User: Fold this.
Amino acid sequence: MRLSKNFLSDYLDIEKVDINELAEKMVFAGNEYESVKKLCDVSGLVVGKVIECVDHPNSDHLHICQVELGDEIKQIVCGAPNVKENIKVIVAKVGAKLPGNFIIKEATLAGTSSDGMICSLEELGLDSKFLKEEDKPGIHILGNDAIIGEDALDYLCLNDTVIDFELTSNRADLMNILGMAYEVGAILGKKVKLPNFELKESKENINDIYKLDVQTSSCPIYLGKLVKNVEIKESPDFIKSRLIASGIRPINNVVDISNYVMLEYGQPLHFFDADKLGNKVIVRMANDQEKIVTLDENERELRNTDIVIANEEGSVALAGVMGGLSTEVTDNTKNIFIESAIFDSYSIRKTASRILRSEASSRFEKGIDPNRTEEAIKRAAYLLNKYASGEVVSGIISYDTKSKENKKIDISLDKINSILGMTLTSDEVKEVLNKLDFPYTNIENLFTVMVPSRRLDVNIKEDLIEEIGRIYGYDNIKGISPIVSLRRGKRSCKSELIKSIRTRLCGLGLNQVFSYSLVSDELINKFVVSKKEEVKLLSPMTDDRKIMRQSIIPSLINIYDYNISRNNKDVNIFEVGSIYYKEDNYNEEMIVSGLLSGNYEGNTWQNNIIKTDFYVLKGLIENLLDYLGYSNRYSFGKETLDDLHPGVSCSIKVDNEIIGYMGKVHPLVSKKEIYVFEFSLDKLIAKKVRLIKFKELSKYPSVNKDLAFVVKKEVESKEIMDILKKVGGRLLSEIDVFDIYVGDNVGNDEKSIAYSLNFQNSEKTLTDEEVTNLLNKMINDVETKTEARLRNK
Assistant:
């Protein structure tokens, strides 16, 4: 928001206020600013009159001018094509300073002395976008009412200073000059002078001319007023200068008045050519694929979430965003229909983000004071009457369903002081409320405050207390040492578990990564167990970041592809993050996900390389679960995901409940050899870790034996291991698979699985007889229950 001192001075007495001091005071009240700059950083400019202009004898484009400056006449050489006798111009005298710290000096041009410079508006530092076409190639010609010798900037109303504020999103009330006037008035203790809009209206009534039909709840207020026989011409300098200071290009008096009132009240207006509009105004939602040609001459295809203004023939404006070309105000327009309305901010935001975000739409998005809608339309009619010679037709066509009552907040002095940590008196609170212009009653330190509708950001007691604190001055708060009870801080169980997982996976050689939680339509269903309702952004910035992810693996594959394209072939990464879905309510679930590809570990000197495969991945998961305290509680099942290779993948179970999946990525997803895992941290946390029991290491020797069984290919190794563990009992201290063989000496439908068994007794040394009897029992049970045979038997 750009705040012009001249514009603000129209509503607040700040003539003697230093603008830089004001900017600093605004900061202490919570309003940051970016810069304080003069609108035209120049000096030494006066109004001059060209009393003689002749061609330069030594140049084909220069002119020798005699310019009257009030108390003297100066000779100035000028090359502008539009310089001529009897015009009033802007003159930079010798010693004047122009933008860029350019100082005007006496000079000789083509052999002729020149004591000054006749200026264009662009040479005053104004951006070319603010200039009329006739001003761009030449000097600026002033009006006949300009007084020779007086300050040219004062005449043009450009002797102004602008503060560029960075407003917070909740302060929609500061997006207009009146809102700024109330804010500055509260800080300086000054009262706001409201604009004049006393109308002289004709006897004709607009309700006899127009019919209004509002067909949507997305328009709670719609007002229309008619002004006839307007004269379209250039705006007065004070209006143009205030628009320029606010960053808006002047067009003509009618368009400029629309923008001027928007800047005054924060209420966007739209002016229709009344003769093109028809006699019935309809406010409705657009039809899907309905077309409208907007003021920028582009044909827009609308959606049913867009609000349109229409007549009986079709839509004529895109409400709150842009007018339609068919009802555009042109130089030939005579009658103006003024629209002042409030539209649903959500609908405007969706439309503006798709089509165009404008000064008007940004205000509709943040909220409009309903009590200013009628004031703004009357103010516009008043200015059209005064500066466009318009005849104001009496009455307003109106549709209004919005409450305009002030918000009532009851609050005690004790509550104010307890929140602020201050000791304000009742009189000090009253003084602040008076500065804010918030009506109130006070009975025995209980305040009943009526918050004006212009303050959309003040809704609860805490909002009001914040207002009291910032206007009273946070710098007035006296520092005291807090008296609090302390307790030792510690991480939650979940945070500790996450830390442990990150530490262990990093120790196992994986690198932690962080990816976006937003994915595309294409990736949302990849590596998902069961499709859940998606959580979509209402206004995504890009199509590849529009849905909250339901698996982290697709993001890890993208990171893998990024590394491979940069010749990093060994990728071992993991991420601990959240997935999102909707089941009755919105849900967020913490997930641990990883990806391994290429070499897991390597020593090029000794050519000792471990290549990533399914068993490396399985060992990594086992190591992690053992480390977390889930030994002997986890297992692996046949269940898998559609996007994993069906023969090289499995489920991860804890206490026989599936918590995740792991395996090789399906060839249809990627031709590369990629191994991934993903499990639910929330499900893992639900499985309470038992207290760790310590036992003394056995001082007796262990006995190692190997067994190899030939079984049908469909028999799982786990089935055999369960039998061996059951028979071995406490004496079987360790069991591992060390070989799986298919090929010669076994049937085509068979495989050989070899196990390494370790036997140990913590109380005595095992005898050969005990171990042999145990092995025989194991072999017998495996052969009986799985139809296996002992290899080489």
Notes: The chain is about 25% helix and 30% strand. Residues 2-38+162-188 form a domain with the Phenylalanyl-tRNA Synthetase; Chain B, domain 1 fold (CATH 3.30.56.10). The radius of gyration is 40 Å. The chain has six domains: 2-38+162-188, 43-156, 201-400, 411-476, 493-686, 703-790.
